[in-house]
Every structure is written in C-alpha cells, then in structure tokens.
C-alpha cells in the first residue's frame, strides 16, 4: 500500500545566454534607461540572469530539465503517468505547454496540464501531483516549472526588467511507502491581482491591453515577507514539526532581502538558505525547482534531508511544501 509521494530525481536547465547586470545596464542605456550593477545587487542580490533565444519556448526549457530529472530518477519518459507544468509564459494560448512537452518527450496517453499560479506555480503543481499520487490516480509524475519571462518584460521599465530571467526545473515525484511530501499549504487572494500582473489578452486576432509585466514592487515585497513566514509556520504545524526540524529553506528566488528576512523570522541560519537568485534572477515558477536541483547537484542537499519549499507571486498566490527528500 503506497500512501505517500516522494521526489526521486531532480533536473534543471538554463538557456546558455548569461546576461550580467553590466551587460543589461549597457543594453538599457542604449534605450535611455538608466540602471547599474550596484543598484541591482544592493536591492535584490541579483548579479546575472539567463535569457532564452527568441525561438526557444518554455516547453523547450522544460524538456531539458525533464531529461535530467528522469536520468537522476532512473526512469524513462514512458514510465511517466502524469505531467504538470507550472508556467505563466506558455508556448501558446492552447494547447498546454505540458501537452507540448509530452510530445517532445516522445510519449502519449498520460494526463498533461499546466498550472497557472505565477511564482507559486511549482508549489501548487507539486501539491496537485502529490494529491493525485496519494489517491492512486498516478504513480510517477513529472512536475515542472518552466518560464521565458524575458518575453513579457518591459525593457523601458527599469523597476521590473532587471529582476527576471528564463529557465526550467523539474522533479520526478513517485508513489512511495515512506513519506516524502509531509504537508503543504496553498493560498490565493485575487483582490491583489493588480500589484503583479501582465494585463493583456488575445481577442479577435489582436492583443488587448498591455501584455508586459507590471509590478508594484513595494506592495509585493510587504505581502511576500508576511505570507512566507505565515505559510512556513502553517505547513510545519500541519506536519507536527518545528523550524528546528528543517535542514533547508528554498524560498522563491525573487529578492535576497525577502529570502534572508524569511530565514531570520524562522530563526534559520543563513547557511540553511538555498540561494540561486544571484545567478538566475527571478525565474517565476522555475525558481524553486532550479534552486532545488542546483543544491542537490552541488551536494548541499542530501537524500533524507527535510526541506521547506515556498512560493509567492502574482494572483496574489502563495504556499509552501514541506518534504523529506
Ligand atoms: O516574483 C514575485 C515576487 N516579486 C518580488 O518579490 C519583488 C518584490 N519587490 C522587490 O523586490 C523590490 O521592491 C524591488 C527590487 C522591486 C525594488 O526595490 P525597492 O528597495 O523597493 O526600491 P524602490 O522601488 O523603493 O525604488 C528606490 C529607488 C527609486 O528612485 P527614487 O524614487 O528613490 O529616486 C527607483 O526609481 O530606486 C529607483 N530604481 C532604480 N534605480 C536604478 C528602481 N529600479 C531601479 C533600477 N536601477 N533598476
């Protein structure tokens, strides 16, 4: 009898073009937009991000991340019976990027769908996959976060365009007799939709509105700091655990000040905080699985460790997943 789900492999992929703050500042200066490496590092902790080539889509990045995750799990694509992709930058209006990814993986038949919860997308997707595995609907899931946020950035808006990057991360989540995922906690509050949004839509063959990212950074910052602490505590309580049980904290990689603030509130030392925002920027739904895979491959995170994954972003959405690797 299997009543749990457990991560059996992780993988990630970054498009090869690495853009440093100085590179970006030079490109923006050519448009008359002023920024600096110093401002970006001091306010966010970001030093570089990766941008995908114009013809590369979220499902292309997802495919590479999935190949690495499947290899790590010792699984073939045809053993996967559920594919969930968290993305806010899908390849098309429809079909889902998950269905497109399924075809690129060379398989067919299993359910495949996207989850849209912006930067909380991966914790949402992982929670859905866990529930489907625990009810016996699936046994071997690919759970992916994949984004090409560079496509929706307004490069005339220095308050947002320096913050985001492209990439993908994936995990293989399998039915298990021992607990992997211990508890999760998901929330949304649509009244804050306006503080972080891409207010555009397709209608009659045209684009209505402005399909570029808009953010009230300070409003997002304040909400993020509050809900990340609340969600971590709620998730620990559901599992009957405390902060002392955590080996690692992997928050959404948006701003080092938010991440360090959350770790401080949870009384976790800086060494237990996984940080990739410096090299990846904010990759939205991809940021948590990217950070997880980097830390696993660096040998920091080991099998058996207890991790808190935390997402927060547009919607407003937020949530956390507590798990044993
Ligand atoms: O993925 C979802 C989660 N997203 C987040 O968590 C983002 C949350 N928000 C933040 O991380 C921060 O609010 C930002 C990094 C976006 C902004 O940092 P801040 O410390 O809140 O800066 P600010 O908006 O108060 O701006 C301070 C100054 C302003 O100039 P004045 O008005 O003081 O003269 C801005 O115009 O910095 C200026 N500024 C910049 N200067 C150089 C804003 N962006 C830039 C820039 N380069 N790129």
Largest sheet descriptor = 5 strands, mixed
Query: Radius of gyration, Cα only, in angstroms?
Result: 19 Å
Distance between the termini: 20 Å
- Small molecules held by this entry: oxa(dethia)-CoA
Please report the first level of CATH classification, the CATH class of the largest domain: Alpha Beta
Q: Which shape, going by the Cα principal axes?
A: globular
Query: If you consult CATH, what is the topology of the largest domain?
Result: Peroxisomal Thiolase, Chain A, domain 1
Number of domains: 2
Give helix % range.
25-40%
Plain-language structure description:
With 325 residues, this protein is α+β, with helices and mostly antiparallel strands. The chain folds into 2 domains: 4-176, Peroxisomal Thiolase, Chain A, domain 1 (3-Layer(aba) Sandwich); 181-324, Thiolase/Chalcone synthase (Peroxisomal Thiolase, Chain A, domain 1, 3-Layer(aba) Sandwich), CATH 3.40.47. It is 33% helix and 26% strand. The protein is built from 10 helices and 15 strands. It has helices at 21-29, 37-44, 58-73, 97-104, 121-134, 158-161, 217-239, 256-265, 277-280, 287-297; strands at 4-13, 18-20, 48-50, 82-86, 112-115, 140-148, 166-176, 181-188, 196-197, 200-203, 206-209, 214-215, 248-251, 306-313, 317-324. Helix 3 packs across helix 4 (97-104) and helix 7 (217-239) runs parallel beside helix 8. It starts with a strand and ends with a strand. The model has no long low-confidence stretch (mean pLDDT 97). The site of oxa(dethia)-CoA has 21 residues, from helix 2, helix 6, helix 7 and strand 14. Oxa(dethia)-CoA is lined by residues 35, 39-40, 43-44, 119, 158-159, 162, 196, 217-218, 220-221, 224, 254-255, 258, 282, 312-313.
